[in-house]
Amino acid sequence: MKKLYFSRKQLCIPYSVFLVLFVFIPMLLILVYAFTQEAADGSLYFSFDNFLNFFTNSSKLQTLGVSVTVSFITTFFCLIIAYPVAYILARSGWKHTYVLLMLFIMPMWLNFVLRITALRELLNIIGFLGKYDYVNTVIGMVYDFLPFMILPLYNSLQKLDQSLLEAANDLGAGDVHTFLHVTLPLSMPGILSGITMVFMPSMTNYVVSETLGNSNITILGKMIEEYFSTYDDMHMGSMIAIILLVIIFLTMLLSGGFKENADETSSRGANLW
Amino acid sequence: MVNKRQAIKNGVSGVYLAIILLLIYAPILLLLFASFSSARIIGEGGTFSFEWYIRLFQSERVMGILLNTVLLAVIAATLSTVLGTMGAIGIFYSNKRTSALLQGANQIPVVNAEIVTALALAILFAAVTLQRTYFSLVVGHLVLCTPFVLISVIPKLKQMDNNLYEAALDLGASPTQALFRVVIPQIASGIVSGFMLSITLSLDDYIITSFTKPATFDTLSTYVYNAVKNESKSDLPLIRALSAIVFLIMIIVVVVLIVRSSRKEEQSR
User: What is the C-alpha separation between A233 and A227, in angstroms, rounded?
Assistant: First the structure.
């Protein structure tokens, strides 16, 4: 009997090897590269230079500022646009809300570069392109990431117990009062996971900022790409990646349930099928 | 009175959803219309024509890129489904500590920023071979897709009736037979959704692809991104026609899905 269980357990060996080779080791390399420099003879030596360089260089700090600002604004607009959508879809009691929800997330299946290109043509026609680089970038990010906000909000609002709302009503709470004191707090997990799912890609998805911001907006993701492909400096690139990870970690920590969010995030795609 | 208020509420809600949907679909509809115009730049006159569609199908380069993209998605999805399903079954039958460790490791690429994963892989390949090949590209897509296969399959394993496996063994099936005839059929829906998810993730990817692909290789995403960045006047109209086709295929798939799921609903009634 023992041997039997052993044979089924063995099935995870290929994936374990894969994880070590292509997830663990590469992430370790990032950490090593971030805190080293290359000597003239090609050997690596420990150094804090990249770290100090990042925080003393005004253009890098500006990129950090731009990135965080764009992400905040994007997340904010996603939230205020998505909440009513999710609320109506989850609570209106209409028939066929499933079809409506599909309509809202369907654009996600169109290749995102094609989607952003389409938006670019529209912004070009209404005369925004080349004029309002920040506005265009934020519009693009909201456009791209809106489904990431709608889905978790919809899920948490749908789970909401109708009897709680009725109880609040029976006890004399008005609609606004019920919303602020019952619905909103109970949908907090959805709000938080929506925030983390929008905030991170808006700091890194440089396809949007490059395509719509006329190459004038540099976000952290773009800076990493530049150090990788243009300057061929993987040490600085790795340092920026580490800084990015720290920011993401802090946002997740700030938005509360680190663990809860991980669960929700993991289901972000799975919800679609 | 209450009904009237409800009617107003419904009306406002409906209008709001309609406006947001209109905004979401406006760019795509614009492309759809523009793809039938002979003008190279939207709004610059032009007459109704299928010119761009004809040129699109005549363009060996674009057709080659499409084939590359689809082939890569199928290869990546197939490999990651096999790897991920095996991993999920292995994890499910492992002891608690191994299972927790592997599931935690599986979450790393999911929670991680895609560009960090991409850079990490690029550094690895640079350190080992100094060049990027089709192999590194496939590995990149596997890192992207496989975690989601596990995430789709593991819940199905948990729902599975474990006694059936034991029963199969008692009735004389070998462990391999029991695995393929009892376990796999019970988790098939998870495997299928993992595969479909992998296909969409791979088709949609830009960042990992651009960090791990060989210089001369293009997928749909990298081709379109470069064409747009260079404002290529010959490529943009083709991309419009291409977007329109992809969009129509997508609508057909969604309609099929909706019809299928509403049929299932009726059957279950």
Answer: 5
Restricting to A residues 138-197, those with a Cβ less than 8 Å away from any Cβ of B are 143, 146
Q: Nearest-CA residue of chain A relative to B93?
A: A9
What residues does A38 pair with on adjacent strands? A44
Which numeric CATH code is attached to B66-268? 1.10.3720.10
Residue A256 belongs to domain with CATH number: 1.10.3720.10
What confidence category does residue A267 fall into, taking pLDDT thresholds of 50, 70 and 90?
Answer: very low
Q: Determine the pLDDT at residue A216.
A: 85
Residue A215 is assigned to a structural domain of this protein:
yes
Closest CA to B236 of A108, A205, A211: A211
The dihedral over CA atoms of A251, A157, B154, B122, expressed in degrees to the nearest 10, equals -30
Please write the tens of the pLDDT for every residue from B139-154.
999 999 999 999 999 9
HEC profile of A109-161:
HCCHHHHHHHHHHHHHHCCCCCCCHHHHHHHHHHHHHHHHHHHHHHHHHHHCC
Any domain includes A106: yes
- How far apart CA A172 and CA A70 sit, in angstroms, is 42
Q: CA dihedral defined by B122, B124, B127, B129, rounded to 10 degrees?
A: -80
Mutation to test the B interface, candidates A16, A97, A109, A111, most B Cβ within 10 Å: A111
Does A173 fall in a domain? yes
What does the mean pLDDT of chain B come to?
Answer: 88
Strand partners, B48: B37
Q: Which domain holds residue A185?
A: 60-272
Query: Which ipTM value was assigned to this complex?
Result: 0.86
For the cut 90, the answer to whether the pLDDT of residue A19 exceeds it is: yes
pLDDT tens by residue, B93-129? 888 888 899 998 998 888 888 999 999 999 999 888 7
What part of B 69-128 touches A (C-beta under 8 Å)? 83-84, 86-87, 89-91, 93-94, 98, 102, 105-117, 119-124, 126-127
Contact B145, B201 (CB under 8 A): yes
Residue A36 lies in a domain: no
Cβ pairs A/B, distance under 8 A: 242
Q: How many domains is chain A built from?
A: 1
Domain boundaries along the sequence of chain B: 66-268
What pLDDT does residue A46 have? 84
Task: Tell me the C-alpha distance between A266 and B55, whole Å.
Answer: 41
